[in-house]
Design a protein that fits this description.
Number of strands: 8
Largest sheet: 4 strands, mixed
Structural class: mainly beta
Strand content: 25-35%
Length: 151
Amino acid sequence: MNARTRSALAILTLLSVNAIGCGGGDNLPREAISGSVTLNGAMLDTGIITFVPVDPDIPTQGGTTIVDGSYSIPRAQGLVPGKYKVVISSGEGSEEKPVESLDEFGPGMPPVPAEESIPAQYSGNTVLEANVTAGGRNQFEFTLNKGGGGS
């Protein structure tokens, strides 16, 4: 993945995390979350992982970057106990979409990868889940396969 693609991914992640993973000072019983992501047996170089609550009464959702196959959300920005759908996204190995017009992207935003490299069953139509527990280890390992299956 080239530097431009990594920059785009980092900026999108920061915007996503700031929008969905803000925390601290809210007195919610947040838990730290960490783990790893592999794709076809290799650590995923870069990506984004997002935890979306299954129950609408769960007050938190959050996400962070995946770097060298690992991710971590500190307790201050963590998730409250409950069941979450897990969405993993990466443009790793894809070409950038050519810029036809500067109006195509928001101010200061670099082009995004042309295509998602993570299969839909882990990204747009995810089947992945995580159960965050109070005082638990809350370390989730996701093994993804482009041919299907995964955990």
